[in-house]
Amino acid sequence: MNPELIDTLVVENTTTIVFVILDGIGGLPHPDTGRTELETAVTPNLDSLARQSICGILDPIGYGITPGSGPAHFALFGYDPVIHNVGRGLLTAAGIEFAMKEGDLYARVNFATADEKGMITDRRAGRIDTETCARLCRRLNEHLTGTAGADVLFVPEKEHRALLVLRGDNLREEITDTDPELTGKPPRVPRATVPEAETTRRLIEEVTARARRVLAAELRANTILLRGFARFREYRTFEGRFGLKALAIANYPMYRGIARLLGMTVHPVTASVRDQFGSLRENFRRYHFFFLHVKATDARGEDGNFDGKVKAIEEIDSLIPEVVALKPDVLVITGDHSTPAVMASHSWHPVPVLLSSALCRPDAVMHFGERDCITGGLGRLPMVYLMGLALAHARRLSKFGA
Amino acid sequence: MNPELIDTLVVENTTTIVFVILDGIGGLPHPDTGRTELETAVTPNLDSLARQSICGILDPIGYGITPGSGPAHFALFGYDPVIHNVGRGLLTAAGIEFAMKEGDLYARVNFATADEKGMITDRRAGRIDTETCARLCRRLNEHLTGTAGADVLFVPEKEHRALLVLRGDNLREEITDTDPELTGKPPRVPRATVPEAETTRRLIEEVTARARRVLAAELRANTILLRGFARFREYRTFEGRFGLKALAIANYPMYRGIARLLGMTVHPVTASVRDQFGSLRENFRRYHFFFLHVKATDARGEDGNFDGKVKAIEEIDSLIPEVVALKPDVLVITGDHSTPAVMASHSWHPVPVLLSSALCRPDAVMHFGERDCITGGLGRLPMVYLMGLALAHARRLSKFGA
After folding, report:
1. Contacting residues of B for A358, CB less than 8 Å apart
2. Which residue range(s) make up the domain with A342?
3. Is residue B399 part of a domain?
4. For residue A228, is it left (φ>0), alpha (ψ between -120 and 50) or beta?
5. Could you report the predicted ipTM of this complex, rounded to two decimals?
6. Which of A56, B218, B245, B328 is the most buried (most CB within 10 A)?
7. pTM for this model (two decimals)
8. Residue A59 sits in the same domain as residue A145
9. B392: CB partners within 8 A, 6+ apart
10. 8 Å CB contact between A386 and A78
11. Is residue A130 in some structural domain?
C-alpha cells in the first residue's frame, strides 16, 4: 500500500493524537540477565497501558536496515523514509532555523583536528565550545567572501558543529562526504556521483582548501569535514497531509529541524523531560497532534550505558500517568529506532510500539517490551504505516471505496 | 510481491476451494465483558475447525484503512483493491444485471426528500417501495428522452435505490458525488476533478435539474442524489486468472454484482442462510470455487446490535459441519472487513481468517476469534494474498523458478 493513500481519506475531527517517541528505545539482552533494557526496567505504567493497548513491532526502514534518526522520524510521521531521505545538511539548516531559500546547498560541518601530515586526529576538534565555533565561522565568512560561483556562509550550530551554506545557481547535491568517519585518515576528496555535479564539486574543494588555509593557525579546529550535502527542498506539510495542527516538544536540533521541515510548531527548548511533559499538558487544548521526543534513551544507548538507559526508561515510565490523565484519543509510545546499549549504536532491530485508544482491539500483551510486543495484535509492520493507524483510531479517516 | 505473480503459476487441477465470507465478521470488545462478538459467540464447530487449520488476520486494504465492501471483496478474490477500486455505479449496474456496454457511465441513484428550500430531509425518501421506484424511473425516462449528449436511463434497483445510465461518447467518470451524505444540507453541485470531465459534469447537472422538475410534485421522492460515477470497464475474469469455475452464492446485489464483474456464475437468490449452504451442497460437484456470502453479521454490526451479531455467528457455526462434510480441499472462513457492533460501522481493524486443508501447517490457535488468530501461523497479512494461499493449498500453483 502506498503510504500516501491515507492522505486521500483524511477527514476533519477534533480528536487528539500524542506520539511519545523514546529515541533508540529498542534494545538487546544484557549478557548477564538475558533481558533487554526495556525488559529490565520496572515500568508499571507502561505495562498497565500495554494491557489496554494494541502492541506490535515496527521496522523503521526495512528488514536489516539501521536507520539514521532523520529517515526514522520521516517514517514515524508517515513519510516514506526512502523517498524522503535527505542529507544531514538540510536537517541541520532546519534545526538551527536558518532562513532557507530555493536553490541553497547545505552541508553539515565538523570542525576537526588534523596533524601535520593532514591525518585527522580528532573528528570533533576536542569538542570546542560554541563560542569558539561562532568565532571560527565569522573568520571563515570574512575570508571566503567573493568565492566565485556561490555565496559561502558558515553558521555555528553547537560545539564543533556548524552549517555550510552555498547560495548560487545550479548547485547540485550529488557530492560525497569529505568526513572520513575515522581518525588516522585524511579527509576524503569529494566526488561528484553524477556528471552534472562536477562544477559544484570543484567549488566545494575550493571552499574546503581555503577554509583550511584560514584555520591553519588554530590549535584544535584546524580543518573542516563536510557531510550530508543537500539542496533545499520543500515538503508537503504534516498539517496539509493529515489536517493535524502539530506541536513538536523536542529539545535536540535535529528533531526540531525535522518537525520544522514538516511545518510543525516547535516548542521552545525545555530544561528537562519532566518539563517536556509539562509543556504537553499546558498546550493540550491548542493542538491536535503532539510529538514529544525523549533523547535520553538513545544517548545512554549510544554511550553503551545499559543501566543508564534502564534508568531513563524508568524516569519516562513515572511520567506516563501525566499523559494518560490528559485522555488523548490516541496515545502512541514507541521509538524511532533501536539503540541497544550492548552495541552502543543505532541498530536494525525493530522497535516496540504501543497504541492506546478506546477503539483499539486489545491483544494479549501484558508488558511493554520487545519480546511481548512481537506477539501483539499489530504484528510486525513498516513504521511508515503507524501514522495511518493513529489517524484511523482517532476517527480521522473516511472509508475507502464503495 | 505483486499479487498477480500467482497468475503465472496457475496449473489445472480438480480440487475445490470454498470461501465462506462472513461479512463484517471482525469486531471489538463489548465494554462489559472485554470480548468481541466472535469471542462471545459459542462456536464449537468453528473452534474445532480452527484447531485443524492455519489462522491469521487480514488487512483488507492497508493499515488503518476502513474498506467499503467493494474493494474488500476485490482483495478477497486476489485483485489489488486499490488498482481495481471502482465507483458504486458500476457495482450497482452489475448487481442488477444491467446489460453493460463499453463507454457507459453509471451512477448509483438515491431517491430522496428535499424541503422547500432544497435541503435534504431524508436521503432515502422514506424508503419508498420498489414499485414506486420503478414508476418514478419510468416517468424520468419518458421526460428525459432526447437529452442532448447522451441517452439517459433510470433503472430501478430496490426501494429508494436506482441506477443512472448515461450512454454516449466520451463520457468521463471523474465527477464528484451530489449526495451530501447528511440531512439538512442541499445536494452537492457535481465537480469535475479533471478538465476533460467538464462536458460530462454539465450533462449531469442538466439531468439532475430536469429530474427534479419531473419529481417536483412527489411527496417524498422529490429529488435524486447521485454517487459513485463509474465508466464501464472489463475485468480479467476470476476463471481466466485462476482457472477456477466459480459459483457465487450471495443474496445482496452488491456482492452479486462483484461476482458477475469477475465472471463468476451467480446463484439465484435464496431465502435464508441455511438455503445458501444447501445450494453449496447441491452444486458442489459442478464448480471448483464457491463464494458463499453471509450478510447478517455485517447487518447486525451496522445496527450496533452486538447480541444480534453474536447470534448470527452462532447460526453460521451450526451450519459449518455441512460444509466440512463436503470435504472441500480448501475451506476458508473469514470476512471482507470488520464491522464492530460498538462502532455500528465498517472499521479498519483486521479480519480473522482460518484456512483448513489437508496441507495446511497447523498452529496453536484453539478458538476462532480475533485475539487467537493474532497468534496464528499466517500472521498478519494483506487480504489480497489470501487467494494465492488458497490456490497453493489446493495444489493449483506450480513452482516459481528453477
Report:
1. none
2. 3-86+235-393
3. no
4. left
5. 0.90
6. A56
7. 0.91
8. no
9. none
10. yes
11. yes
